[in-house]
Amino acid sequence: MTKKFGMLNFFRRHPKKNGISEVPNFKDNLLAFHFVNAGKQLITREDRLFELRQDGIGSKMKLVEEEEDSEARLAKDYEDWMKSVMQTLENSLDLQKPEEQELLKEAVQAILQEEKQDMRWAGFEEKQRPPWRPRRCKQNHEALLERLVQRRMEEAQSDSGDEIHSSLQQLIICQAKRLQEDLLTVVTRVSSCYPEQENVCQFYATLYHKTLSERLREVAEYTLCDEDCVLLLQWVNQDYPNILNGKKIKDVIDHTKLDLLLPEDMIATLEEQFLTTEEREVNKCLHKILEREETAWKEGELPQLRDKVYCCDQAIDVIQCFHKHVECAQKLLGNEAKAQRITCQMKHFLTDYKTFNEKVMRTKQTNTEAVLMVNLSCLIQCRDYITKNAHLFPEDVKTDCLSLLETMTKSSHSYFTSNMLKELKDLYRKVGSSEWLKDSECVCEELLEKLDRHTQKFNGWDKMCRQELLGGMHKEFLAEYVRKMMKQKIKLSNKTQQQMAASSLCINSECIHTYFTAAGSNLDWLKDILPNLASLLKLQDPDSIKLELVTLMKLYPDLSERHISAWLKLKGNLSPSDLKMILKSVTCSQYQFSETQDSSRSFFSIVRIR
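Request: output the structure for the sequence above.
Response:
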């Protein structure tokens, strides 16, 4: 046994000169808070005592007496030293002056010195090391800091100015302030007292996180009121991460290494309660808006006029109500996908709105048209909102909502244009006839004059709503014009007639476009439809016609073989074989262009021919 320890050169006595110590003794160092030096003296004494015990110097009785006496004194001195060190550590978070920081630094170094001594003995069996080793100073130090953090969090008090609504709010406000203040103290004052490798900021953050987590888990076990549910979710998902990502804290604390503040099952329960409440609130809010509009309509009220235009406050109310709740859910849950659950309420609202809109269309009240105008404006604004905020909606909900809006918009447009189209029916018969060929400008003017009598009533609409309706009318007017031309009531048997017809188409196109854009349509691209078709009438060479058709199919991928055939049959001098060759050559190109079809430029799909 002695031979095994002969190799340990750290068990050596420190000689004295003339029997007088050249350094302060243990008590002097302890009173002066020189913990490191005092700790070194204790380590030297324990090394000597253990060496004596191993070597067996003197009589056994004397050895026993000396060891018992010295070990007892060593234990007492160590106890006094530890008490003083721990008292210093206990004041870690109350540092104010530089000298207090130096004192804490001394205590920390002393603890690490003791830890090092423990490690020197770590490789020996229990019988081969001093009975008082390991002392586990660092472990005691960490336990002390844990108790310190728990005590400070329990003692946290709210400011008298805080307006407290519930015990949970009091708990969160008090502990949040204490946690933030203490972590800032650790970062700015305490951390400099520890070696960098100790990562004391992360250690303190873990302690505060654990303490707070335990307290919140106790609270979350019980059913919370809706207000406290929101408060707790906001703290867990927003406020607490904001503290950890604060300017001075985020650089020294890695919050990704911290456990979840609340377990996933508790978070899921809170989220379910919150989302259920939000769904109920959104539904209630939207239903109240719809109920208000329906009541006003039944009582014969007209929508509000501003600058001689009917205003659509309901659209603003619907969008604001909906967006407010969805945005709140996104922020509170920190998850866009979870918040999407609320958006189903928009689909439910639009379904009910469709029922309301259909009721209005079936009545003959004096306010029916005005209410439908405002409803149409609401539909357009809701559609634009959903389109611009598509990320808020699950794909299926977005599709269903847009489909409902499109159906309602079409039925509303139809309500306002059906009578007009009936009156224009007789005039449309002249398009593409021999009468049109003789005086196309007169036929076009007659159509537009009758149309104008109907469109005057749209002057009281808001710009966006009028633009939407007139744009649709513009497109439908041209589609019917082209359809009538394709009925082939005339045959343009020679080049002169074909060029005359092409010229008439271009003149008519200019008149139609000027009228509709002045009325409110913004579909500027429609002005090229008739001129592009006219160019086919002017061309005589089949190869040139093929090239022109390829260009047109790029512009209008919904231009079908049936449309092309009907239009080219106007050319009486085009042989059946040439027509067949042209159609065959463009069929291959048609598939290619249809894959890149731009639905916003769809036109020929509404030109229905037999």
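The chain has four domains: 2-145, 156-261, 267-412, 429-606.
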